[in-house]
């Protein structure tokens, strides 16, 4: 699972990543990606090249970001606190965020089936 250790419980990015809908969707996508990479040799080499590129870009961006983060720490703390308040409200209004993606998909399928049955019953009696 893609759960991140929570060094700061108020870190809004960590909170979003750890939402069940977000983490389970990531796990599902990662599983499909891994399966595709393992079962399709032609795509494997393309994926590996792309992964190396992403790692290089990420390392460079991280190194440069540290300097910016240090200079803007007070602004980041303010933005994080504000975003945390907004996330609290979003989580309250959208409880779906606390559900794993497979449950969301199952519930959506059931809703569609119920709607089809209702329409069919209304039209055909």
UniProtKB/TrEMBL annotation:
Keywords linked to the UniProt accession: Lipid droplet
Pfam family name, one: Perilipin
GO biological process: lipid storage; positive regulation of triglyceride storage
InterPro entries documented for this protein: Perilipin (IPR004279)
Protein family membership: Belongs to the perilipin family.
UniProt-recorded name of the protein: Perilipin 2
Gene Ontology cellular component terms for the protein in this record: cytosol; lipid droplet
Compartments in which it is found: Lipid droplet
Organism, as annotated: Latimeria chalumnae
């Amino acid at each position: 699972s893609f759960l991140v250790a929570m060094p700061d419980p108020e870190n809004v990015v960590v909170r979003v990543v750890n939402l069940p809908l977000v983490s389970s969707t990531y796990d599902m996508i990662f599983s499909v990606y891994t399966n595709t990479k393992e079962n399709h040799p032609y795509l494997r080499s393309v994926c590996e090249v792309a992964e190396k590129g992403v790692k290089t870009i990420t390392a460079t961006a991280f190194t440069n970001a540290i300097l910016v983060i240090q200079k803007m720490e007070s602004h980041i703390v303010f933005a994080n606190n504000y975003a945390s308040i907004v996330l609290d409200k979003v989580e309250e209004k959208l409880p779906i965020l606390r559900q794993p993606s497979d449950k969301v998909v199952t519930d959506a399928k059931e809703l569609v089936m119920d709607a089809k049955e209702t329409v069919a019953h209304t039209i055909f009696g």
